[in-house]
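Summary for the funding panel

The consortium committed to producing paired sequence-structure records for every protein in the target list. Below we show the first two records in order, beginning with the earlier of the two.
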Amino acid sequence: MSGEAFLKMHGLGNDFVVFDRRKGGAPLSAAEARRVADRKLGIGADQVITLLPGADGADVFMQINNADGSEVAACGNATRCVASLLIGEGKGDVSVRTKADLLTARSGAGGIAVDMGLPGLGWRDIPLIREMDTLILPLQSRIDPRLAEPVAVSMGNPHAVFFVSDADDIDMELIGPPLEHDSLFPERANINVATIRSRDHIRLRVWERGAGLTMACGTGACATLVAAACRGLAERRAVIELDGGELVIEWRDDGHVVMEGPAALSFTGVWEWGQ
């Protein structure tokens, strides 16, 4: 394979390189994904997305590789971007298969709305290294003691949500790596630091496992709303304010979490695999 067309997309600044291999082609390897995601030697992205043929009723299968090459099972912002492509092809409601779940999406008033499914709140769902109360983890940052006793939530990937008085006062690049790799999380964790502005408005910053500090994290926004509602800090529908903009998250009465927000195409190009 030599040149291959790609799309550069983003959801609130959480950016992706998308390869469309629905008509043929293999999944990307970890090394290939790292090369593409490199911001100096490649195209640059938080995640690299490969679209493969759907199965079992899905319109598409979405392979997700972090910038470090690791493959993950869920990405909310990428799901919105992929759904926007399929909707642009003339589809109405669309279904996106990931390793975590079958997700459905549609056009909404605020962009693309995705049903992210049921949150996982059991210790095995996250997963954690052993049984414990996921609403109050026995974890405190050695670097910043303000980060203590987070809530653990899975949205197809593991999240730890810390509530603090001022999320903007936290050095995410300093506290992120050690917390991501804490021994409680056998598959590492996304680290969310949130401030409750009101019962329907939450400020959030996210250190994403395998990608680092990100402008937005869709699954992190979903996990944070669930965590805040479980702690009695917020309603089950709220605006989540991230560095890149806002998402509206609703934890419905049927238990499903719905995320709504924009998706954008930045540019297209051709990647030379042989270079």
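The next record, for a separate protein in the list, is shown here:
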Amino acid sequence: MIPLRDDVPSRTFPVVNVTIIVINALFFLLELGMGEQLQGFLYQAAVVPALFTPGGHGSTGFLDVLLASLYPDLWFRILLSMFLHGGWMHVIGNMLYLWIFGDNVEDRMGHGRYAAFYLICGWVATYAHIWSDPSSRMPSIGASGAIAGVLGAYIALYPRARVVTIIPLGLFFPLVQVPAVFFLGIWFLQQFLSGAMSLVARTAETGGVAWWAHVGGFAAGVALVGIFQRPQRRPPSRDSWWEEHELRRRV
């Protein structure tokens, strides 16, 4: 399933979300211009799980990983890796999801809260990836862990929203409206099952995708959305958002 848009209007301009997309695009253009130097740069900038474990031997102690990540060079790796991508499909897919779902989450959180939320979800996603394969020396890059946090917040805030989706069926590509709770629920289930399979059998296919970063980021988004959501001036009645949304659609 390929999402195209949702049916939830944003009341404010998503300045932080757009800024994140622009930064990711600029970094990707920078990568394209590096030529033969790109591979070496990625090994210096990406998250390599073994670097975050004592002696690189794959200890899974949470405190050890946490303390290691506070070193300036490793901290910089975590931050920088959130804005790097491994190819056109990687960056386009990530930015498409962020564009569709991020504006509404920013709308409910406010600009500053959303920026902090995004980075924290990316941080948690990195921890989840390191935990899943602590001895790995394969570099990991991409915004998908942080974006998974945005998806987790979206499903908590707008479960009854609808997502206009392309469903490839052979030679046909019908457009359908799918409830957000179904669309994102299926997405999360795919990530979780793929992550579980990667723990059982390491293959080139499972090892190349940070499935547990997606799972960890999504879980962080669901858990933290209540903290980062902007306080309402008046307590909303049951289904008040949905009633307001339906009224706007009819008008």
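Regarding this second record: Residues 56-60, 235-240 have pLDDT under 50 and may be disordered. The CA atoms of residues 34 and 41 lie 9 Å apart.
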